[in-house]
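Can't attach files on this board, so I'm pasting raw text. These are the components:
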Amino acid sequence: MNQGILLLIEHRDGVLNRTTFEAMVAAQGIASATGEKLSAVVFGKSVAGIASEVAAKKLEAVYTAEDDKLAEYSCDGYVAAAKQVVEMLSPRFVVLSHTYQVRDFAPKLAARLGRTFVTDCVGYRAEGSDVVFTRQIFQGKINTDVRVAGEPPILASFQAGSYRADKAESGETRAAITPLEINMADVQIRTQAEAKFQEAKQAVDLSQAPLIVAVGRGIKSQENIEIVQKLADAIGAEIAASRPICDNEWLPMDRQIGSSGQTVSPKLYLAIGISGAIQHVVGMKNAQTIVAINKDAEAPIFDIADYGIVGDLFEIVPALTAEINKVKAGE
Amino acid sequence: MNIAVCLKQVPKKDSILRIGADQKWIDERDISYEMSEADAYALEEALRQKEKHGGEVIVVSLGPERVRQSIKEALAKGADRAIHLHDSVFDTAADAAAIARLLAAALRDEKCDLIFTGLQSDDYGFAQVGLILAEEMGLPSATIVMEVQPEDGAVRVKRELESGWFQWVRLPMPALLTIQSGINQLRYATLKGIMAAKKKEIREVKAADAGLTADDLKPTQVIERAYLPEKTKSTEFIEGKPADAAAKLVEKLRFDARVL
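---
Top answer:
Structure tokens for the assembled complex are below.
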């Protein structure tokens, strides 16, 4: 019989991924709501430091699964190792953070286990010993409560920012660290990875900008970016963008906010023609004050906005620029 | 080099979405559809690879009759032929594993060097179908791909990691790649392409052809309820003519929020 909850720990170059603690908050909550015990597992090579850091948290046990073939992340290596560990421990739930790395191997892991994987959850609800997961569809426009009909273990990943990492509970005593024996001899790693790099043109650090004016798909064409630039200049703000704008090369990549771009928390974030897809929102939702200007009153950006104007950005943005310039002239 | 591209048709990006009467999905009346964005980029990448290295581009799509419109668009843009998984039995295939199983059944006899999917769809956003398909077919995979360079018997791809980091990964072919939006610039179909598409093959695959029954496709995840997200903040909506709204907003930002 499957018992307990297993949290998969993510780390890179000896550093724990912050979102691991966010997923831990969800996992600790599910554990206490269902009466299941929560353990964590760390994959890699020489992971004693990581395991020790994790063991300070409120966990029943910390497991390590080490092998030369896990020294560098690979989909083949992680799927093979995680499958063995999950089968050894037979938990009811396997909890992960919905990172790019998890997206690269966990669906294959679920398929190889023949189990279901509820991805990118933003919440959960316990019903007795059952868990109903909340995940967003249509890029955050609609929430769904998802019930799992399949056999345990059930895999679930939580979206970055759904829980606060600093809410992860520490344990009264340190969790024992237990190495697991995995057999990787026959595992073939089919991918060869080269060194990680950042694009050299990453010149702008938007994370330090106190004021940001960001533009999205609603701007329609590259020529129209100018009206947003004028507003940014009037306010003294940095200009930024959602992914489609940078994909179209209307603004350089280093202006991109969101999961694949920069994460910012300015005093003011003015979102113009940005619908608020989750991939964008995770990069800016911690801004102190969020203003959204959008023609669609139902756009999810309004769910997190402090101030909203529903209307035509081509009328409102120039009016806003004129107003700012008027105020500045009067000072 | 032969490339299969899995295409999904989804409600148009600017659709106003309402919850359906059963509160389990959206109200699909009055919705228009288009190719899911990342899939459109996957198709474009396949066409570019074909133009450089030769071979064939096959598109495969699952869905009702309306999906033909996206299939035809792909053929008009330059895909050589298409497979349409079209059977009312498939309507129950609503989770990633069932969808992947169907795609695998359609592609199993094709001699593909590469299979492309978008990194996730714009509707469900599972971000799983590609990888489960790879697992079903025993293929190595790479996700969130931003550049594709075929080499002798292998493919070198630039993967996007988080926060502006990238990594090149080499994998043997055949392989499955999930393509990130923005990998290239999308093309429009030309009139010539639209005319040529009329002669291209669209092969229909039914449940019996795929060797799958409704039981095999039973979803393991069921949407119990669909609803609009609760607001995490109470938004103060500012109304009025543009100039008035602008003046009110600036005042709020200066004196209430004190951020200007």
